[in-house]
Design a protein that fits this description.
Elements lengths: L1 E11 L1 H7 L10 E9 L4 H4 L2 E8 L2 E10 L6 E10 L1 H9 L2 H4 L4 H8 L8 E13 L6 E9 L3 E9 L4 H13 L5 E3 L3 H13 L1
Antiparallel strand pairs: 1-5, 1-8, 1-9, 2-3, 2-6, 3-4, 4-5, 6-7, 7-8
C-alpha cells in the first residue's frame, strides 16, 4: 500500500498530554506499537530522508519504507509504502533485511537501494509507542502518542493528518491554542529523535 502523508506534529508536555486524554475515542482500542528501525551503523538512510521500519501493532506486523518529501508548510510530508507480513518473515528479515525490502512496493525498494545494500542493514533502534485516536478537531484525524525513548525518557506528541497547505496548519494551530493547549511545532520524525537520543548515548 502506498500513501502520501502530510501531517502536523506537535510536541506536548505531560500536562497537556494528560488533558488531551479526555478526548480519546472511548470505543477505539489503544494501539500499542513496537517499531524496529533498520539502517546502517552511521544512520546513512535516515540522514538522507529514507526510513525502513517494521512495526508490530496489536499483533499485526507491517514493513514500511518512508520517504521524506519537501514541504512548504509546517506539516511534515512523506510517502509511506507498506506491506503487512507474517511474524516469521520479520524474524528472517532481522538476519537478512533484503527479505523485508523485497516485500515493499517498487518505489520503496528503489529508494533504499539507491542508498545502501539492504543486506548490510541492521536494527539501529527500537521505539515503543502508545497511540490513541482523538475526537478533537472536526475534519482531521488526530492521534495522541506516548513514546518511550532510550534511557526510559518519554515524549508526548499530537499528530494531525490531512494538512493540505500552510493555511490548514495555521487553522489547526490556532484552534488548539484557542482551546487552551500548549505545544511546540515539530518537524522531526520519531526516528530522527531516536537517532539524536542514541547519538547522545554514544557521545
Amino acid at each position: 500500500m502506498s500513501k502520501k502523508e502530510q501531517e502536523l506534529k506537535l510536541l506536548l508536555t505531560k500536562e497537556t498530554y494528560d488533558k488531551l486524554l479526555a478526548h480519546a475515542e472511548a470505543e477505539a482500542p489503544v494501539l500499542r506499537q513496537t517499531n524496529y528501525y533498520f539502517d546502517m551503523p552511521d544512520f546513512h538512510m535516515g540522514k538522507n530522508g529514507v526510513m525502513l521500519r517494521v512495526r508490530e501493532e496489536n499483533s499485526r506486523w507491517i514493513v514500511c519504507a518512508k520517504i521524506k518529501q519537501k514541504s512548504e508548510s509546517a506539516a511534515v510530508s512523506s510517502i509511506e509504502l507498506e506491506q503487512e507480513i507474517p511474524p516469521d518473515v520479520f524474524k528472517a528479515g532481522r538476519q537478512d533485511p533484503e527479505i523485508l525490502v523485497k516485500l515493499l512496493p517498487e518505489e520503496g525498494q528503489a529508494a533504499i537501494r539507491r542508498l545502501v545494500n539492504p543486506s548490510d542493514l541492521v536494527i539501529r533502534g527500537t521505539l515503543r509507542n502508545e497511540r490513541r485516536k482523538l475526537q478533537l478537531i472536526e475534519g482531521y484525524t488526530c492521534e495522541l502518542d506516548r513514546t518511550l525513548l532510550p534511557e526510559n525518557k518519554e515524549q508526548y506528541e499530537l499528530e494531525i493528518e490531512g494538512m493540505e497547505n500552510e493555511a490548514a496548519c495555521r487553522h489547526v494551530i490556532e484552534t488548539l491554542s484557542s482551546m487552551g493547549y500548549s505545544f511546540s511545532v515539530n518537524q522531526k520524525s520519531k526516528y530522527q529523535r531516536l537517532q539524536e537520543a542514541m547519538g547522545r548515548l554514544n557521545s
